[in-house]
Specification:
Number of domains: 3
CATH class of the largest domain: Mainly Alpha
Structural class: alpha+beta
Strand content: 5-15%
CATH superfamily of the largest domain: Winged helix-like DNA-binding domain superfamily/Winged helix DNA-binding domain
Number of helices: 12
CATH topology of the largest domain: Arc Repressor Mutant, subunit A
Order of helices and strands: HHEHHEEHEHEEHEHHHHH
Strand order of the largest sheet: 5-6-4-7
Shape: globular
Helix content: 40-55%
Number of strands: 7
Length: 298
């Protein structure tokens, strides 16, 4: 009898497992995770825990909540203890944040002519746990479930799909197709509504718009820009994973995703550098800017 492969903490899938899309946006744990991805991971030397707490409090988190959240992130292997009450970002978390930067800061939008990626696989009942793992990670990559064992993604996610299958030791059970145009059973909009949970995605985009409604792109004060920027990134960062960026013809009328994407790009462009200045003033020299520059136009 075959058993599902065990996913040890040393396997590549562990880096995928560090993603947390269920954490409550704005919570202390979520905010410090965001701060880690934006700033801490660029530091080669261990970071004094007091500096991390200072960055958290500057983002609106109490000292007590920050201390508790740091401990939780250590337990989740997003942070690890160094020497002399210092923290560092472990290698698996670095890989997770590296992948996250590509998604978060370059949100893509399909055109009607962009190709698609189809993934087909068949797994026996003895591998049910592996089915659940594939479903979990495919949903977090923005996949649409067409039928049991058949998923659809924008073609530009093919490498990430392939990496997830490899990490799950499921690549040998899956066939990946690249196609130019699916022929839908009814309309493209009806197919998208069936394959993706567009109602939930639309709700998350609307929540982002509401969370950033009072945020000004004209904020010049580094401390205020930092607080707004961290909160904005925290509210946004799961969306480019869960939302594949479907073409307009597959989306409902008045889709809020376009407005939230435009707001994200505008606020990021305006607040990123003053926020970086503030973080550098807390962390000291050696904080390198994120090399994933926001595009003009994901």
């Amino acid at each position: 009898m075959r058993c599902a492969p065990k996913l040890a903490t040393s396997t590549p899938i562990s880096a995928f497992g560090l993603d947390d899309f269920e954490a409550r946006t704005g919570s202390a744990t979520s905010i410090i995770r965001t701060i880690t991805g934006l700033y801490l991971r660029h530091r080669r030397a261990p970071i004094p825990r007091t500096h991390v707490v200072e960055l958290a409090t500057a983002a609106g988190i109490s000292t007590a909540a920050a201390q508790t959240a740091i401990s939780r992130l250590i337990d989740k292997q997003v942070l690890e203890n160094g020497t002399d009450s210092a923290l560092r970002v472990p290698q698996m978390a670095q890989a997770m944040f590296e992948r996250g930067s590509r998604r978060i800061f370059t949100p893509r939008q399909m055109s009607a002519m962009d190709p698609w990626c189809l993934v087909a696989y068949s797994l026996p009942e003895t591998l049910r746990p592996l089915r659940h793992q594939i479903r979990k990670h495919f949903l977090q990559l923005g996949g649409g479930l067409v039928a049991a064992g058949l998923w659809i993604f924008p073609e530009y996610l093919r490498e990430e799909v392939d990496a997830a299958l490899e990490a799950l030791h499921a690549r040998a059970q899956a066939t990946i197709f690249t196609v130019q145009q699916p022929h839908f059973p009814a309309t493209a909009r009806e197919a998208a509504a069936q394959w993706w949970d567009l109602e939930q995605l639309g709700s998350r985009h609307q929540q982002f718009l509401e969370a950033t409604a009072g945020l000004s792109a004209d904020q010049a004060d580094p401390a205020e820009a930092y607080r707004g920027y961290v909160g904005m990134i925290d509210a946004w960062r799961a969306l480019p994973y869960l939302d594949p960026g479907l073409p307009d013809g597959m989306l409902p009328e008045a889709w809020p995703g376009k407005r939230s994407r435009q707001r994200f790009l505008a606020l990021s462009s305006a607040l990123r550098h003053p926020a970086q200045q503030f973080a550098a003033s807390v962390l000291g020299h050696g904080l390198k800017p994120d090399r994933f520059i926001l595009p003009v136009g994901r």
